[in-house]
Design goal:
Blueprint lengths: L5 H4 L3 H22 L1 H10 L20 H6 L13 E6 L9 E5 H17 L7 E4 L7 H12 L3 E3 L6 H10 L4 E4 L1 H13 L4 H4 L4 E5 L5 H11 L2 E8 L4 E5 L7 E2 L5 E6 L13 E7 L10 E7 L1 E2 L11 E2 L10 E3 L2 E3 L1 H8 L5 E12 L2 E10 L8 H19 L4 E5 L14 E3 L4
The site of adenosine-5'-diphosphate (ADP) has 19 residues, from strand 7 and strand 12.
Length: 433
């Protein structure tokens, strides 16, 4: 099965724009009439539903930010009677106070449909056994993938996070073919399997991974394939737009944002101006059909771009490039912008290093210092001090070339840095700002 919903997924672009306009118009009219929050926000911006006459008029509408949800914590933005709610989730709170998300049954159905389309685009279908190792609970990852997996008819294993040896046993015993978790946790599972004498490629049927919830790189995708024979797909979402929703397809070249469900804009984070395809900026999403807590022009804070051109898979919805991190993940070191994902990319060019790394930033005197701790692969361990020093200097040079700023490298033995079941914590910033 190539598509979950072929008609919608391959709809001609002009028809899709028309559909997006109709949905937006309905949404804006409903919210202007029924929500004090949106009514006030639109009045302050001087825009009325009648001003929206095409999808491009979306730029007339005000933005929403995480602070809008935080200011209205816990449920001030709920736009339906409370008895119509069927579920709450709460975000991980990576950048501060968590936000609450509420769902009607239609919201859950729409989210599941989107995950189902995404899973099929990753090649996961009825014949698959999908092990979901995202946290089940307040975090949207577990239940989001679970419902989508059931919708495509896969056999879902609600393994949740943790107990890694048990996860490997389940992969073997239940003949898991696809897995969903964070990229850092999947790398950890590869290591644990190796220690148990299990080679994913030879000893299991696992061939597809759907990885997200944190930034990762194409270098990591290649590393995963080389180490396990598993093809890793990227999945993206945030709890505010419902949860994990959008993946890259078989082309592995950008994540399709289901256009009938969500409208994508990339904006200049400083001016708020919409940027053309190909230009990097802040991802901004309008969920066109959400009922309980609708999101209009929600500034997600992640930096990416819309990929130009049509995708060979036949889907007509726009694709976004890998997210290089959030605006607030970006470190400013000696005035230079550094994303942890760029460090991962540079480290993984060295075949002796792994993707287990941590960044520490200090301020001694007027200048910032960055220390990058990275684990060596077991077969890169050497007794030779010269060998290690050479590797350290080579890695420092490679980072300086890639980032335009110096970092000290500390090579660490295998399994010495912390592991994370959920989102990896990569940065410890000791600077007092
Ligand atoms: P929180 O904002 O508390 O972390 P979520 O759990 O909803 O809440 O996480 C959403 C965020 O996780 C996104 O805004 C993004 O920064 C990050 N994220 C999710 N999926 C990916 C991905 N595939 N690549 C990079 N970052 C991701
Ligand atoms: Zn595609």
């Amino acid at each position: 099965m190539a598509y979950y919903n072929e008609k919608i997924e391959t709809m001609p672009k002009d028809e899709l724009s028309k559909l997006q306009y109709q949905e937006l118009k309905k949404l804006v009219t409903r919210l202007y009439d029924s929500s004090a929050f949106y009514h006030k926000k639109m009045d302050e911006t001087g825009v009325k539903p009648a001003d929206i006459t095409s999808i491009t008029d979306i730029t007339k509408l005000p933005f929403m930010k995480k602070t809008d949800l935080r200011d209205n914590y816990p449920d001030g933005l709920v736009c339906v009677p409370h008895e119509d709610l069927v579920r709450y989730h709460v975000s991980s709170g990576t950048t501060g106070k968590p936000t609450v998300v509420a769902y009607t049954q239609n919201d859950i159905d729409l989210w599941s449909e989107c995950v189902a389309r995404s899973l099929v685009s990753c090649g996961v279908g009825k014949k698959d056994v999908l092990q979901v190792c995202y946290g089940y609970g307040l975090f949207t990852g577990g239940l989001g993938l679970h419902y989508g997996g059931e919708k495509v008819g896969a056999t879902v294993i609600p393994a949740s996070t943790g107990n890694s040896e048990r996860q490997i046993e389940l992969i073997q015993d239940l003949k898991t073919t696809a897995i969903a978790c964070t990229p850092s946790y999947f790398i950890h599972l590869i290591d644990v399997a190796k220690r148990m004498g299990v080679d994913f490629n030879k000893d299991t049927l696992l061939r597809t991974a759907v990885l997200g919830a944190e930034p990762w790189t194409d270098a990591m995708r290649r590393y995963i394939y080389a180490e396990s024979g598993v093809t890793a797909h990227n999945i993206f979402g945030t709890s505010e737009i419902s949860g994990p929703m959008f993946t890259d397809c078989s082309e592995l070249n950008g994540m399709h944002i289901c256009g009938d469900i969500a409208y994508t804009e990339i904006i200049d984070p400083k001016t708020g101006e919409q940027l053309p395809p190909g230009e990097k900026g802040e991802l901004t999403i309008t969920v066109l059909k959400k009922e309980a807590i609708p999101m209009i022009r929600y500034r997600i804070g992640d930096i990416t771009s819309i990929i130009e051109g049509d995708c060979a898979c036949g889907r007509t919805s726009p694709r976004i490039d890998r997210l290089q991190g959030r605006v607030d993940d970006m470190l400013i070191i000696r005035g230079i912008n550094v994303f942890p994902s760029a460090i991962e990319h540079a480290l993984l060019k060295n075949p002796y290093l792994t993707s287990h790394f941590m960044i520490e930033v200090f301020r001694t005197g007027p200048l910032d210092d960055m220390l990058v701790k990275v684990e060596l692969k077991p077969d890169a361990m050497t007794d030779s001090i010269n060998g290690l020093m050479e590797m350290q200097m080579r890695t420092e040079r490679a980072l300086r070339d890639a980032l335009n700023v110096s970092a000290k490298i500390e090579l660490c033995p295998p399994n010495s840095l912390p592991r994370f079941e959920g989102k990896a914590k990569r940065v410890i910033d000791h600077r007092v700002i």
